[in-house]
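Why do we care about 3D structure at all? Because function follows from shape, and shape follows, mostly, from sequence. That is the central idea of this module. The next example makes it concrete: a single protein chain, its amino acid sequence, and then its structure expressed as tokens.
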Amino acid sequence: MRTLNLIFLLLFALAFEISYAQPGGPLGDPGSQGVQLENQDISKSISIYPNPATDFVIVKSPALNAHQVKLTVFNILGNEMQTEIEVIDDHEVRVRVKEFSAGYYLIAVRDEKIQFKGTYKFLKR
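And the structure:
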């Protein structure tokens, strides 16, 4: 069962990575190339720190609006974790991880307005 959960989590993370790496339109619609390049730039601009974390993790990106972005935290088995998320400023969000057990976690970052999806890994000590 644990192996299946790990496989599910890896496929989930891969799906997020593929979703913004591939052109958004059907069969590589040329009109979607600008969105593809823009999303790749956004994914590189996102920073997750401190890593490893003890009390909280900051998600920061000058390209995203912190008031519109949706963050979801998953443990390594693929279970969604309940946590407090606080907007610090227009481009920074703080995620409380103090109560989490030590281990690896994933943060899924989504912004529906600009059609961006990305997944990032961090270590909780």
